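In this supplementary section we document a worked example of the pipeline. Step one takes a protein sequence of length 415 as its only input; no multiple sequence alignment statistics are reported here. Step two produces a three-dimensional model, which step three serialises into structure tokens for compact storage. The input and output of this example are shown verbatim.
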Amino acid sequence: MTSEARVGADLFAGDPYPRYRELRQQGPIHWSSELFGGAWVITTFDGVQSVLSDTRLSACRTGGWLMREALRGSEHRRRLVDMQRLYGRAMLFVDKPAHPRLRQAMRAGFHPAAIHILQGFVTEAVNGILDRIEAKYGAEVPFDFIENFARVLPAQVISRFLGFRHVDEARFLSWSSTIAAFLGSVLPDARETLAARDSVLAMSEFIDDYIRVSEIEDGNMLGVLIKAQQRGDIESGVEMLSQCAMLLFAGLETTRHLLGTAVYWLLEDPGRWRSLRDPTRLQSAVRELLRWDSPVQYTGRRAICSFNLMGQNIHRGDLILPLIGSANRDPGRYDDPERLDLGRQVGMPLSFGTGPHVCIGAALTLMEAECALGALIERWPDACLDESPPQWIDLPLYRGLKTLMLRRSPMAGPA
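The serialised model returned by step three reads:
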């Protein structure tokens, strides 16, 4: 029998974790008529893990989702067809046989040796950004960590990873924010959809122009993809551009949210910040911070056939919504999950997904976060939150901060 718990669009408003807890207590699966026009919501760790590996569920879900607004008028439809051609070919949104072929084509760029080589650049980039912050702001002067660090570092790192010689930070971030507003909405309107369309096409045009006029080095991801296309492992220029745009967007958006929330939760209790002066604790701490407040709160799958899932009748075409944020707080998986424990040793949470579509860039994100936090804590051991409350973004898909005001040192008291 279908759960009678109401699951509305307000599920993700503010702090979603108390509502996740209520849903888990009522059952592992719930129907929502409000989310995405109707969706099955999965709340538990085991349920989410199972769904993300279920071959009866497809990652191909962009068509109806993207074209929903286009159905209202032929003008919108014409304008969105080009976006769908790119979007629908991204590895994130395809199944076999395209998915394993694309994943294999990109694997060399994410090889541990390649990530290790990039680590030197990340360390240099982190320290360069910190140098600029220190030169601009006094130790007791509050500054926005999101604007000055969390948005800047991922732009530099993903640009270097892909192979761009010069970082067009402002344009990359503008495109990324517009696409995130579309992806992150439960029901994007025509304005959000068409703005995302313009950003996706502009991003792809930029990449295409860069490839045509630049000498691409073999060791970066652009070089890996070009070679894959020459071998026939990537079937067209459109398919290659789709993977580049996906990597550029994903490398910017999720990493900046991880950096922002990680620093917030570490400084929210100064003892946590001080405890990580021991660099050997960083690896487990980053994984626990991902579990505690995942940058991506859910993902989606479409049923390719009718079947029974956790006692519910799923029909072909139904949307399944695995709640990653809820799964990571499931007491059936974690002891005392509502406690942030930086020493927790439980392996990888579901923040990067699992199964065939597990995030191919997980190692890069983890390395970037560990380098950044390690340098921040070493250089700013007395950092603290400013009195100004943080501002959280209001996009359901993502959990992150708009602003986070910090000071490198506490304000001196009266003499």
